[in-house]
Write a structure and sequence with these properties.
three-stranded mixed sheet; two-stranded antiparallel sheet; binds zinc ion
Length: 270
């Protein structure tokens, strides 16, 4: 348990050292103390952390399940192909499947590392819904919501005092929240609205029905238990209506659901 903390500590210190000064994030009103390279370094560190912890994150082997990953990457590529992703070339956009049928969740780290539990893949009914969720997660990475949140949660003063060695307890707290709260750093309501909005905008440029993310939320309303997704992606008010408004404002074009190919994707999972 101490080894991963140490490696993250080193990364975190490097991140802070390389982040002198304030930089604007993609959302103009939000200061993001981290650079785009920091996002990438964070994502890579988290990927290592996840790979080193197969008990909590049993990654489905891409060599053993090539077909599942082909479906996954094909859907990702259709979103990357829209030309709407800021960091299309700089971020990794590596998508991985975590084998846990009881987890109804997906998450994205900074730098474009995306994770989908088999639970959410099996729960959904068509590819448009899945692409909607993927677009939402890609938007969180591409709009740099995690590092915006870290800057906001911990504040410039605290980050500076950590840098100056005046607040070692806070550093431990941040590391703990990163190392053990992977995927649980809850986004703000504004981030959720933005990620929904961009999911619709991305999918609108593809042949998918752009309301896939709304369909997912409609489906969640009938979920038998509170899905994990809503603990890390708090559901703001009128979310479905807002998604429909974005879709209408783009022209209200109906797209495809792709039920058959999605059934093949699900069938390729263990
Ligand atoms: Zn979200």
């Amino acid at each position: 348990m101490t080894k991963p903390i140490n490696s993250l500590l080193i990364v975190l210190i490097l991140v802070f050292v390389s982040s002198a000064g304030c930089k604007k994030g993609s959302d103009e009103s939000i200061i993001n103390l981290f650079s785009v390279d920091d996002d990438i370094a964070f994502g890579e560190a988290m990927e290592e952390e996840i790979a080193a912890n197969p008990q909590d994150f049993p990654i489905l082997d891409p060599v053993a399940y090539p077909e599942a990953y082909q479906h996954l990457n094909r859907i990702r590529d259709s979103i990357l192909g829209t030309g709407l992703i800021h960091y299309e070339d700089r971020f990794e956009w590596k998508v991985q499947i975590i084998q846990n049928d009881s987890m109804l969740n997906a998450f994205a780290t900074p730098g474009g590392f995306l994770y989908f539990y088999t639970g959410i893949i099996k729960y959904l009914d068509n590819e448009a819904q899945f692409a909607g969720v993927m677009g939402h997660e890609m938007a969180h990475s591409d709009l740099r919501h995690s590092t915006n949140t870290l800057t906001k949660v911990y504040g410039v003063q605290i980050l500076l005092s950590i840098l100056l060695g005046q607040s070692p307890g806070q550093l431990t707290e941040i590391i703990a929240s990163l190392a053990y709260g992977l995927g649980t750093l809850a986004f703000s309501r504004d981030h959720e609205y933005k990620a929904d909005e961009y999911s619709v905008k991305y999918l609108y440029q593809t042949s998918y029905d752009a309301r896939g993310i709304a369909d997912f939320f409609i489906k969640l309303e009938d979920a038998p238990r509170p899905p994990e997704f809503l603990s890390t992606h708090p559901s703001p008010e009128n979310r479905i209506e807002k998604i429909n408004e974005v879709w209408q404002s783009l022209g209200g074009k109906e797209g495809n659901l792709y039920v058959d190919s999605y059934m093949q994707f699900k069938a390729s999972l263990p």
